[in-house]
């Protein structure tokens, strides 16, 4: 699980609105622009161009300001009119060095902003890439959504930017939800049922949160379910966010009702700086939103949604207790067969003989290591350790897999047997364990 939200939410809440008045425009005055995205751990990753440099950004409804991440200080040459600033981290007095930059040319598909303002933080802890397995250089949200009607098709991995003045899509079959905005972030009211008790909750629509649901416990509305377990929920600027995970009986979003939803309940210390909006009770994340075809209309404060092919899919959750991350690349040695011909002469005729030959091939392939283990979970009980490099899982080479493949295996069902071969301090070890439902 990756909570993109925790890494930059507090920062974005501090930043003042940019002075630039320009907006995004679609090339050649087209009515819309279709943009493909790569969905990794439920998150939307898109290729962009910033001042002529190719990068990858996360598209995120939960941020109000565009942010550039994981640059080296030498890379400030990418930025236009960069001004050094200092910001406070979550819950502390320590100052974080950052840059505020204006008048940057930003291109996404056939859509361009001539003078985008963004913020850059230089902090090695703010790096999504290892947990996602793909490079992520930045985040864009409100700056994009405010200028268009944004249609997200999770089933086919694309979204479309519509000129709001020429949008004519028929909305039959869609449910409309009114949006409320606080600091340029969209909120909806939903009904939540926990252990038979119902409550009305005001939740941030946050497709930059890979989880299904986050709820902030309080004395009046939201309480933690009886059956929970303590877990790592995400990374904050000044440390880890810990909390409880439990099952919510149902949530009702407009006319849509979803049941048995895994929800995270961060401890009060972790969220005290996240609740900049007092009426906020949590967030609806991408594990929930990806089950719908979505149309965001910020101008008219509306969200339209319609169930897609994953609407009836049961929610899944980790049953291993393992969090993996991409740990660089390793050299894989293999052999490739090449058939060569040899001309031989005999008394009567020339004869061509085909003989196979082999040569070594070296390739760089991704490596994965265990970043975290949940206390008393099956993987830890089996003997696996943080830092172990995964070589094989269920007899399949790890370098042939992506992080999403591991996620599917670790949530495949209680009772499933998992075998893992790992490398630890130069030695190979084999382990076996069974997945367990942590809520039972």
In terms of per-residue confidence, which ranges show pLDDT below 50 for 5 or more consecutive residues? 1-20, 89-93
Order of adjacent strands in the largest pleated sheet: 4-5-10-6-9-8
Q: What structural category characterises the helix and strand content?
A: mainly beta
Which range does the strand content fall in? over 45%
N-to-C span: 21 Å
Tell me what you see in this structure.
This protein is mainly beta. It starts with a helix and ends in a 6-residue tail after the last strand. It has helices at residues 4-14, 129-132, 142-145, 268-271, 286-289, 378-382, 403-410, and strands at 25-26, 32-36, 38-40, 43-50, 53-59, 67-68, 82-88, 95-108, 111-121, 138-140, 149-153, 158-162, 175-178, 180-182, 185-194, 197-205, 213-215, 228-236, 239-253, 256-266, 282-284, 292-297, 302-307, 322-345, 350-373, 389-393, 396-397, 417-424, 427-434. The strands form five sheets. Strands 4-5-10-6-9-8 form a six-stranded mixed β-barrel. A six-stranded antiparallel β-sheet has the order 2-12-11-22-23-13, with no helix packed on it. The protein has a six-stranded mixed beta barrel with strand order 15-16-21-17-20-19. Strand 7 and strand 8 (95-108) form a beta hairpin. The chain is built from seven helices and 29 strands.
């Amino acid at each position: 699980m990756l909570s993109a939200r925790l890494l930059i939410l507090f920062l974005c809440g501090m930043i003042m609105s940019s002075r630039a008045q320009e907006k995004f425009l679609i090339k050649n005055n087209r009515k819309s622009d279709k943009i493909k995205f790569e969905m990794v751990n439920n998150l939307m990753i898109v290729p962009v161009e910033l001042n002529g440099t190719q990068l990858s950004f996360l598209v995120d409804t939960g941020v109000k300001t565009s942010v550039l991440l994981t640059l080296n200080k030498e890379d400030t040459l990418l930025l236009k009119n960069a001004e050094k600033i200092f910001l406070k981290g979550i819950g502390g007095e320590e100052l974080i060095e950052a840059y505020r930059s204006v008048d940057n040319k930003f291109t996404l598909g056939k859509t361009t902003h001539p003078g985008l303002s963004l913020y850059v933080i230089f902090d090695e802890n703010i790096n999504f890439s290892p947990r996602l397995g793909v490079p992520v250089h930045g985040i864009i949200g409100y700056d994009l959504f405010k200028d268009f009607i944004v249609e997200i098709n999770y089933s086919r991995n694309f979204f479309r930017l519509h000129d709001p003045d020429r949008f004519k899509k028929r909305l039959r079959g869609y449910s409309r939800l009114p949006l409320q905005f606080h600091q340029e972030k969209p909120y909806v009211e939903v009904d939540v049922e926990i252990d038979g008790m119902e409550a009305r909750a005001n939740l941030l629509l946050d497709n930059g949160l890979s989880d299904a649901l986050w709820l902030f416990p309080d004395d009046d509305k939201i309480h933690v379910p009886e059956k929970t377990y303590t877990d790592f929920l995400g990374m904050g600027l000044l440390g880890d966010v810990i909390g409880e995970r439990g099952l919510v009986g149902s949530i009702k979003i407009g006319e849509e009702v979803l049941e048995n939803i895994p929800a995270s309940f961060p401890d009060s210390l972790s969220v005290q700086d996240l609740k900049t909006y007092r009426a906020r009770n949590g967030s609806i994340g991408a594990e929930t939103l990806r089950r719908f075809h979505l149309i965001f209309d910020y101008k008219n404060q509306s969200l339209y949604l319609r169930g897609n092919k994953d609407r009836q899919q049961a929610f899944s959750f980790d049953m291993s207790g393992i969090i993996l991350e991409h740990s660089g690349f390793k050299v894989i040695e293999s052999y490739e067969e090449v058939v060569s011909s040899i001309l031989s002469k005999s008394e009567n005729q020339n004869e061509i003989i085909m003989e196979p030959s082999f040569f070594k091939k070296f390739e760089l392939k991704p490596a994965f290591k265990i970043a975290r283990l949940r206390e008393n979970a099956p993987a830890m009980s089996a003997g696996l350790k943080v830092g172990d490099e995964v070589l094989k899982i269920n007899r399949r080479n790890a370098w042939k897999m992506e992080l999403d493949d591991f996620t599917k295996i670790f949530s495949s069902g209680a009772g499933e047997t998992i075998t893992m071969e790992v490398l630890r301090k130069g030695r190979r070890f084999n382990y076996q364990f069974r997945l367990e439902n942590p809520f039972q």
